[in-house]
Amino acid sequence: MQRHLISAADLTRDDAVLILDTAEEMARVADRPIKKLPTLRGRTVVNLFFEDSTRTRISFEAAEKRLSADVINFSAKGSSVSKGESLKDTAQTLEAMGVDAVVIRHGASGAPYRLANSGWIDAAVINAGDGTHQHPTQALLDAFTMRRRLVGRDAGLGRDLAGKRITIVGDVLHSRVARSNVDLLHTLGAEVTLVAPPTLLPVGIESWPCEVSYDLDSTLPKSDAVMMLRVQRERMNAAFFPTEREYSRRYGLDADRMAKMPENAIVMHPGPMVRGMEITAEVADSDRCTAVEQVANGVSIRMAVLYLLLGGAVAETKAAPDANHAPAATQTRTEEK
Amino acid sequence: MSKILIRGAKVLGGEPQDVLIDGETIAATARQGEIDWSGAGLSAEGAEVVEADGKVLLPGLVDLHTHLREPGREDSETVLTGTRAAASGGYTAVFAMANTFPVADTAGVVEQVWRLGREHGYCDVQPIGAVTVGLEGRKLAELGAMHESAAGVTVFSDDGKCVDDAVIMRRALEYVKAFGGVVAQHAQEPRLTEGAQMNEGVVSAELGLGGWPAVAEESIIARDVLLAEHVGSRVHICHLSTAGSVEIVRWAKSRGIDVTAEVTPHHLLLTDELVRTYNPVYKVNPPLRTERDVRALREALADGTIDIVATDHAPHPHEDKDCEWAAAAMGMVGLETALSVVQATMVDTGLLDWSGVADRMSIQPAKIGRATGHGRPVSAGEPANLTLVDTAYRGFVDPAGFASRSRNTPYEGRELPGRVTHTWLRGKATLVDGKLA
């Protein structure tokens, strides 16, 4: 494991499987009457959100609290950021207050990478979504959900997603979820197909480790999981597609299309769903749709990531890391200060 | 009048020669040790001797594309600091772009910039006038008034913005013919580049940064060379950056269209792979392109399809680069590293010899911009605008040593060849042994 989690592409297969296995351990905590571990007691995590987000922030917050971390929530609205303070100054201000990890959501692609690599701060950086770049914990929770459903909760331990056929449908161009998923699913051995109108696929996609198709119907019968991405209505104003109805007809998932999928195939959605646009209410509410399950799994995954990145040990390990106990914390810091 | 004897300099990279400067002009040149002192009252008496020891002597470099930032952004550069940077880089003339605050769209502003350059005396400053009022692309600025002012403007550009309205561009091209002017176009189709952050391609797809497609540059160049042909005007293309643009300019020249083009040092060396660091020091407009584009640009500069190297020296204060990519300003400083980058990419690779460098960095830019007294041969009777280069030098770029007020160089810590040791502006040393006079 690295010291930061910036991109799903940075994870090796073994890193990813370790996170998924650790998340299964964490999921058991949720089944207990007292859903709390003492692991991060005395450690401080800040949720630094420059972009509106409800579910991701709450998910991280729940994960941090279940690990007994001290949690600081920082949202850019109404803060010094709206008065022109720079990312660097904001981060340094927070670190001066003694922060061990920064969970950052930012509208600019690369902002978490800059935070982790510019020598501005020492804390571990976890990317909670940056621009149209990456959202690695989303990809991890999606992979976790797929492994549980397609391989099995216990049978899946230690295993990847080799041979599973995953189709991702929708606004790939503007989607950090799609980018993270392509990277991670490829690492885990899955076969990924992206389906979208050509206007919503980036130029340069030919270098990605996946297939690309413009035709949803021919892809569905060959899919073990179909992930529908949110399509913002505003996109049609920029001529990405003609109308909402045409988009739904060609790329929306309804009951007829779902019937073309293999019997045990699942429907996924990172949320928030635009019902009637990329997915009908009937499909969204069906047993095959894992959207709600994904939210629950998100907490387990984020607990696992925090646990592994922060060493899963008490605060003293920061001064004296214990190589056997906390593999993730023993990486020497090579970044320039 | 002061005399300077430069001994044993390889003029344009040729055989070692002695060059005698008397006052503002070159008095004599001859093979080393063979100046004929008997003729025309020549004497070395009282001359300061500069031992060139095989360094290369070039006509003073001319930059057709510099941002001096004054008036308005004196926190990033002033005419004084910018011209000191120019002298450090071997330049004796720079063309100052019009996107200042206020915009250089009136005779008053261009005269101010011109006068500041003269007062400081490090380098001739030739202001470029805006094509349209406020660079807004709607109404022609008073091009004739700027030309007739003391600044004598001949190059007009809305650089930073494209003159995207075809009718305005056509009129500007036609209008400046009356006084031998030229429009320098920043070729960027605005609709195709809304929200653009970097070259559109494999890297932008991965990084999730808004793409700046090559076609946005190429379509404007294609339109403008056709407009220039139609109205019989000359047109200059700023910072050409793609292989496709090279093809269009090559085609236009083969048709006899009066087009000239420039390439920046950074587009000759760097590619969009560097953006993977998300370090905004690599953020520039037009953006860094691909390896294939870099190869095409080098070949085009070698074969003359691209006429000149221009720096697009664009100083920015530290805080405008010490931030996330999307929030950062576009541009890099370039005056103090340009010659080294050209040596690395063109000379050391065998694509261009030193007389070729003199052509692309002094003679042709002076010709395009009508900079009298610059880009002249190194021979008796010519103005003593000269640059002496230690081509054997290799060193690591250290921005702390820059004369520019800004430090936003993409070459920090990079090893580059060559170092300008002396620059003379009309016989007056502006740089001596690498130190500003």
Question: Helices, strands, pairings?
Answer:
The complex is a heterodimer of chains A (337) and B (437).
Chain A lengths: L12 H18 L13 E6 L5 H12 L3 E6 L11 H10 L4 E6 L4 H7 L6 E7 L5 H16 L13 E5 L6 H12 L3 E5 L15 E3 L2 H4 L5 E4 L15 H8 L3 H4 L7 E3 L12 H4 L6 H19 L28
Parallel strand pairs in A: 1-2, 1-3, 3-4, 5-6, 5-8, 6-7, 8-9
Chain B lengths: L2 E9 L4 E7 L2 E7 L16 E4 L4 E4 L1 E6 L12 H10 L2 E6 L10 H14 L3 E4 L15 H6 L6 E2 L9 H10 L6 E4 L12 E2 L2 H6 L3 E2 L1 H18 L3 E3 L5 H12 L4 E5 L1 H5 L21 H13 L4 E2 L28 H10 L6 H16 L16 E11 L18 E11 L2 E5 L2 E2 L1
Parallel strand pairs in B: 1-4, 1-5, 6-7, 7-8, 9-10, 10-13, 11-12, 13-14, 14-15
Antiparallel strand pairs in B: 1-2, 2-3, 5-16, 16-17, 17-18, 18-19
Helix pairs in contact in B: 4-6, 6-7, 7-9
Molecular structure report:
- The complex is a heterodimer of chains A (337) and B (437).
- With 337 residues, chain A is α/β, with parallel strands linked by helices.
- Chain A has two domains: 8-134 and 295-329, Aspartate/ornithine carbamoyltransferase (Rossmann fold); 136-293, Aspartate/ornithine carbamoyltransferase (Rossmann fold), CATH 3.40.50.1370.
- Chain A has helices spanning 13-30, 55-66, 87-96, 111-117, 136-151, 176-187, 216-219, 244-251, 255-258, 281-284, 291-309, and strands at 44-49, 70-75, 101-106, 124-130, 165-169, 191-195, 211-213, 225-228, 266-268.
- In chain A, the strands form two sheets. Chain A has a five-stranded parallel sheet with strand order 7-6-5-8-9, with helices on one face. A four-stranded parallel sheet of chain A has the order 2-1-3-4, sandwiched between helices.
- The longest helix of chain A has 19 residues, at 291-309.
- Residues 313-337 of chain A have low confidence and may be disordered.
- Chain B is α/β, with parallel strands linked by helices and 437 residues long.
- Chain B has two domains: 3-57 and 381-393 and 415-436, Urease, subunit C, domain 1; 60-369, TIM Barrel.
- Chain B starts with a strand and ends with a strand.
- The A-B interface holds A 86-88, 106-111, 113-114, 117-118, 130-134, 176, 179, 202-208 and B 197, 200-209, 211, 213, 277-279, 319, 322-327.
